[in-house]
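REVIEWER CHECKLIST
Item 1: Sequence provided? yes
Item 2: Single chain? yes
Item 3: Sequence as submitted:
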Amino acid sequence: MGKTRRILITHPNYGLLNFSRIWMFIWVCLQIGLVSAFSQTHYTLTDLGTFGGDHSIAYGINNSGVVVGVSRAVPDEPSTIAADFPFVYSNGVMTAICTCFGWATAINAAGQITGFASFPTGQHAFLYGNGILKDLGALPGSMSGPPYSLAYGMNSAGVVVGQTRNEAMVYYQGIMATLGRRAALTAHGINDSNDIVGTLQSEHAFLFHNNRLVDLGTLDGDKNGTSEAFAINSSGQVVGYSYIAGNSIQRPFLYQNGVMTDLGALSGAFGAAWGINKA
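Item 4: Structure as written out by the authors:
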């Protein structure tokens, strides 16, 4: 009999986000290689609960099994709008990173957590570690409204990637900057070689490698089609999703050595790959 592993899923009450459990299950399957190892490894599902609301979503997990995400909290007063708080889950306990609207999107091996939250000066990316929440600020821009930033990914060195002023951004040691490529809309993932993946303004997945921005295209080669890249591992393998058949079918993809491959779908025509491990 194979070794038993645990899969962490979101709260069973679907609420407004009835895809949350499905997304997390697919993401963990790819993170731990479930597709190839399912027949020889046994798994258990753990409901992480919520802060009293009707849903929670897990977005990241590190090698120590610490999970981060967002959870709906019950409002203090009936007339108050329910809030989504960023959380960290460890040793069976879900803890709010702050009692403010926000999402925790990634955690690295050192336990550093990134995401975004509502601060007094606006919606900004954050870094959280050792009980300290740091507002990463935002770059000024020409967009209407206050400057904003969002963080979606982070590597082992604590380099954060995301979006600010409608451009992909990178943050490290107190400095926030864009990629210097206005075509890059959002950065979703980064590996330890500082290769970055995300989405272009043209709604195509991209890879930023050696200061070169590469349009990954789509599975069927449709220049007007849509694709997004969400994660990249140390081997340079990229995962995400691509629409095909006139943007009517969404499929998960693996991109490596210049080739985008359809990973298939468990059922129907809908699927996406959110994470990939080092193997």
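Item 5: Key structural point noted by reviewer: Residues 20-31 form the longest helix (12 residues).
Item 6: Recommendation: ____
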